[in-house]
Write a structure and sequence with these properties.
With 638 residues, the chain is mainly alpha-helical. Helices cover 72% and strands 1% of the residues. Strands 1-2 form a two-stranded antiparallel ribbon. A hairpin with a 1-residue loop joins strand 1 and strand 2.
Length: 638
């Protein structure tokens, strides 16, 4: 009995702290402090939330980053130190801010505790990659005056550095942490409520009903289900493990190889982070960074996301045609049956979309309204045995708080980087060096930036990837004359593509654990399945119409050319369109598709793009007619 009491007390403490994060966010967004006459700065609220997140991090996770069943004395002491320091910071922030120019010891103490505990927290939870990146910036800040060339900067003492990055409103308590604790937390809460009410099962069943009976239906279930699930999920990896346990075995049974099944799930799940309305919460961060309405960001991301999923959907269909893969599950529910049981999920989603796009409410207000709607309909009506109860609602509060720990630590660390870029002048220097290195060659600048984004994005969550790259890479693209929304979407795409790009392709590796296949080979296969995702960012930078900038005619023309080009290249890669394609036809289809796409970096005009698109379309029509009398047998490697 004595052994169980600490565990019970520890569990109760964790549940209380995690729930407090969600309750505080709700109260803040309802302006409760203001309504009861309390003047609280946003930074005080952020300090409170950061204190809760750090405390939970050290209570929950051990030295190696694994979740532990008990908390040792050292971690308990660190958790208590972090909690007490941040609670003091939240309580006395106004005085600390007023005294900041005089550098009192209290600011140095707060800054040191915040810097050290956040750094150790991200090492445990985000891994060595992000820890090393932020660490390099911290070391640079200490020795910036000794760096040769244009990257020379203003050196800082240790006291000045920790006092700045660990306290200043332009560093740790800046935009990333504000968006994470005010907006993203509510959308995570919304997603957790949805799944607790049976929404995850509803999405999977709807995808199965809509596509499961078509050719290659099992893979199409993965594509559609992952797109639906991923658009509100904050993590490509969690998307893989949540939907993949259902879709990957389905693909295996119907005839897809283990490698292709894992690759399809990884690519489909990664695309969910690039799909409106939520985009892994990156859309809200982008809107804050660019100081533009969220609606503008979501609108710009829509057509590229459609092209992304067009390419994946076409590839799984053509693989099924090439290898004669048919649907093996004939007992799935019909679309009518799924909607009859789960129609009520349309109400909170309808409210969310109406609030965001019709009533133009703030994202946090929209998420709160949709969450209330889910609680109402989820308690009144279940879905196939899943119903939201009071007990389950309490568990959602805890799950939301604990799931936010990683994100809050990552955005806090990203605030360190932003602060260092500002105080040392490194942000301007990096932009100048990168732009000067490539001259006026925008394509080369984009290529170098893409590689940097993939490398820096390895192993990081969506929001963390975006915040880091928005500070380091996006300014150089904007300085080179690229539209700011295009530049920020470009870095988001390539940051997320690190999820399917070896050597640290986390989404592909997560899928490989389900398929029990070689992780590296699954990552390589995912790059093949997701080939178009590496080209789409170049497309929308070169063709602003794909981001909605232009007349309806220009947008439609660019979308048609891009769509035909992607389908043609996909046919060339898979080696099938109506019938199997030999090397010559594969080459012609691939080249025609590439030329059809409006990549404006080369001196080609609409006539050349249109001619190539027409050639690809006519060739596809001819192959379709020929294929009606030819049935493929067996499997060939692409």
């Amino acid at each position: 009995m004595t052994a169980k009491k600490p565990a019970g007390a520890r569990a109760a403490l964790i549940a209380t702290l995690a729930s407090a994060m969600v309750v505080a966010c709700i109260l803040w967004n309802l302006s409760v402090p203001t309504r009861i006459g309390m003047a609280i700065l946003t930074q005080q609220y952020m300090a409170f939330q950061l204190g809760l997140a750090l405390t939970l991090a050290y209570l929950l996770y051990g030295w190696g980053g694994q979740e532990k069943t008990r908390t040792g004395w050292i971690d308990a002491g660190i958790a208590l130190l972090a909690f007490g320091t941040l609670m003091y910071c939240a309580y006395d922030f106004v005085w600390l801010l007023r005294e900041q120019p005089y550098r009192p010891w209290q600011i140095t103490f707060v800054g040191a505790v915040v810097t050290l505990t956040v750094m150790e927290g991200i090492r445990r939870r985000a891994g060595w990659m992000l820890f090393s990146i932020v660490g390099v910036f911290l070391v640079y800040a200490l020795f910036a005056d000794l760096v040769p060339g244009r990257l020379i900067g203003k050196a800082l003492s240790v006291e000045r550095l920790v006092g700045y990055v660990g306290f200043d409103p332009n560093a740790v308590f800046s935009t990333p942490l504000a968006v994470g604790t005010i907006i993203v937390l509510l959308f995570v809460f919304f997603g957790q409520l949805l799944f607790a009410a049976g929404g995850g099962s509803f999405f999977t069943d709807l995808a199965m009903a809509a596509t499961g009976r078509s050719r290659g239906g099992s893979a199409k279930i993965s594509v559609v289900g992952s797109a639906l699930f991923g658009s509100i999920s904050g993590s490509a990896v969690s998307n893989v493990v949540t939907t993949g346990v259902v879709t990957i075995p389905l693909m295996n049974r119907s005839g897809y190889t283990k490698r292709d099944a894992g690759a399809i799930e990884a690519v489909a799940s990664t695309g969910g982070q690039l799909t409106p309305p939520i985009m892994g919460a990156a859309a809200f961060l982008m809107a804050e960074f660019l100081d533009i309405p969220y609606l503008q960001v979501a609108g710009a991301a829509l057509l590229p996301a459609l092209l992304y999923y067009l390419s994946v959907f076409a590839q799984v269909d053509l693989i099924a045609g090439r290898d004669d893969i048919q649907n093996t599950d004939h007992d799935a529910l019909t679309t009518r049956q799924v909607l009859a049981e789960g129609w009520h999920f349309a109400l909170p989603f309808g409210l969310l979309l109406a609030a965001l796009f019709w009533w133009r409410m703030d994202p946090e207000e929209s998420a709160l309204l949709a969450s209330v709607a889910i609680v109402a309909v989820g308690m009144l009506r279940g879905y196939r045995g899943e119903r939201l109860t009071l007990k389950r609602l309490g568990e959602v509060f805890v799950e939301t708080g604990t799931s936010m720990v990683n994100l809050i630590l990552v955005v806090a660390a990203a605030g360190f980087v932003i602060g260092i870029l500002n105080i040392t002048g490194l942000g301007f220097a990096l932009t100048l060096v990168l732009v000067d290195a490539v001259g006026s060659n925008v394509a080369l600048l984009l290529g170098i930036s893409a590689i940097i984004c993939i490398v820096l994005g390895m192993g990081m969550p969506t929001s963390g990837v975006y915040v880091l790259l928005a500070a380091l890479v996006a300014p150089s693209l904007v300085e080179a004359g690229i539209d700011q929304i295009a530049a920020h979407l470009f870095i988001l795409y390539f940051g997320m593509l690190s999820m399917i790009t070896p050597p640290v392709a986390l989404a592909a590796y997560a899928a490989a654990t389900i398929t029990r296949d070689d992780p590296l080979a699954t990552g390589v296969a995912a790059m093949r399945v997701g080939w178009a995702s590496f080209l789409i960012p170049f497309l929308f930078v070169a063709t602003p119409a794909l981001l909605g900038n232009g007349s309806w005619g220009q947008i439609a023309f660019a979308l048609v050319l891009s769509g035909i080009g992607i389908l043609a290249v996909t046919a060339g890669i898979v080696g099938f369109w109506g019938r199997r394609l030999g090397p010559a036809l594969r080459t012609v289809m691939t080249l025609a598709g590439l030329v059809a796409m409006p990549l404006g970096f080369w001196d080609t005009g609409p006539i050349i793009h249109s001619a190539a698109a027409a050639l690809a379309a006519l060739l596809a029509l001819w192959l379709t007619l020929q294929g009606r009398s030819t049935k493929p047998t067996g499997r060939v490697e692409p």
